[in-house]
Amino acid sequence: MSRTVKGHKGIGAKVTGVALVARDNFSARYDLDRINGVFSRKAHALYGERYVGRVLVLDTAKGGVASSWMLREMKSRNMAPAALLLNAANPIMAQGAAFAELPFIDRFEEDITQAIATGDTVTVDPQNGLVVIG
Amino acid sequence: MQLNEYEKAMLSGAFGRGRAEALHQQIQVGEFFDAPDFVSVSQVHMMADTESLGEAGVAYLEDLAALPEKERTVLVPTVTDPRGIDLCRYRRLKQCAEWATLEQRTIDALQRLGILLTDTCINYQTVQPPVYGEHLAFGDTGSVIYANSVCGARSNFEGGPAALNAALTGRVPRYGYHLNERRRGTHLFEVRFTPRDWSDWGALGALVGQRSGSYWSVPVITGIDSNPTSDELKHFGAALASYGSVPLFHMLGVTPEALQDALSLFEQEPPPAISLQDGDVEAFYRSFGRHRGQVDVVALAAPQLSLLELQRVAGILGDRHVHEGTDLVIATSPEIKAACDRLGITAVIEGAGGILLEGVCFYQMYARETGALNGWRHLVSNSAKLVNIIQGYDYEPRLATTQQCIDAAVNGRLD
User: Fold this and answer.
1) Which fold, B293-414?
2) What's the CATH number of domain B5-180, 2.60.40, 3.40.50, 3.30.70, 3.30.499?
3) What part of B 77-136 touches A (C-beta under 8 Å)?
4) What would be the CATH architecture of the domain defined by B184-286?
């Protein structure tokens, strides 16, 4: 049976994919090996996990301004996640998602890292701010 | 978002597809953050170092640069953050020719857009200081926090593509730090420590940043018992933004929105004050002290040095010489470099065996690869921001006072 979680209106087009979830933060510059498509920062909860094509579900955006160039560069090489869901965004991640046309939603009515489990199939609908699980 | 007639025409492509695409992206960001409308900006500061741009970013700039002049020229004065490479000096740092090629392509594209290649993160000191209440689109966390806090201007963090969009449309979505209600205090700090060196100011900023913790936090700082200078607040703000992703602070009696009393900065009863003492600062310095002895590189950057900082560095160096096993690398803006050439400061630094770079910053110039090529691992800096970032690039950094940094460069070690 499917379940719907509501968030704030997001960015990008509707997409369906398999979730990769952790209660940790996200920075494209500091957490990822962008060449090989895996989490490379040892202290990260998803260290070693491949994120390419996954619906990535994490807590908050962090880091400096560089991430906003990087999402598009990753997408141009088919090495980006399918979508990004965070509890709390910052402007840099929203600007990067708009530049990359990467589906992105935040500010859910519940903790999104608890609502979704790794391996769940989820449909992300940014224009309506909805995530359908299962 | 509410669009006026001019913005509707721009979105429909009346001023070219580059501006239409830029506005389209800005509307998405604006609606994401519930912006009611756009606000005009008077100046844009854009981060476009090639390490972050990659081939895709450079190709995007080149596509815009190929548009007719009327469609591609920026609508407001736009200046650049440090570049990825100092084209005059990269060979001395053993940096690759391919990086220089990508850099030149970027420079050519930016110039065709009418962007001023100032290549500096201290544009608020060296290009044009912001004015109280001025709406801006600044693109380096250190330049944003200085403009917002010290000058009382108004900007969000505008990442490279967002700053480029602002340059092409002359506006930004009105949300975040453009709004009065977002500039209210959220955290209260009581400082019981007197910073003496730029590194102390950075350490204090880092401590506040670690305890503030998000883009939407506004720390209010009380207890500062001196009259801080522009360079001191620059180090404080850069570290605060680096450790806390914070774009605005209020400092009682110092910054223009906090001249009277701290309590009125809070909408409601302020939270309990967080006290910062000598011991907190000492512990912060010690948190980097895992290695002793040999120093591979002394890096003075992040933010780039002002003319006054460089004069002091040259004064501490005097007629001493940098140790043969150690590199002294200093970064400033092209304008300040020219001033140093004219005023004899470059001659002192280079004569001592130091390297004075222009238009770059240490961590934005392929720091990991450049470190490997030069055998740099043990790094010493007076910048709390730099020692924070550089840990992610395979360095073992230490924070030290400016005097200790120069002595370490001369002695080749810091014990």
Assistant:
1) Aconitase; domain 3 (3.30.499)
2) 3.30.499
3) none
4) 3-Layer(aba) Sandwich (3.40)
CA distance B220 to B252: 7
The domain segmentation of chain B, as residue ranges, is 5-180, 184-286, 293-414
Helix (H, G, I), strand (E, B) or coil at B402: helix
Instruction: Give A71's contacts (C-beta < 8 A, 6+ positions apart).
Output: A28, A80, A96, A97, A99, A100, A102
What's the pLDDT tens digit per position in B183-210?
999 999 999 999 999 999 999 999 999 9
**Chain B: closest CA distance from residue A92 (Å):** 6
Reading the block at residue B246, the tokens are: 């914070």
CATH code of the domain covering residue A22: 3.50.30.10
Residues 6+ apart with CB under 8 A from B187: B208, B211, B212, B217, B218, B219, B220, B271, B274
Enumerate the β-bridge partners of residue B78: B44
B159 neighbors A91 (Cβ within 8 angstroms): yes
ipTM: 0.95
A91 in contact with B, Cβ within 8 Å: yes
Tokens representing B224 are: 């500062």
B394 and A CB contact within 8 Å? no
The shortest CB-CB distance from A11 to any of B28, B47, B56 is to B28
pLDDT digits (tens, 9 = 90+) for A23-71: 998 888 778 888 899 998 888 999 999 999 999 999 988 777 888 899 9
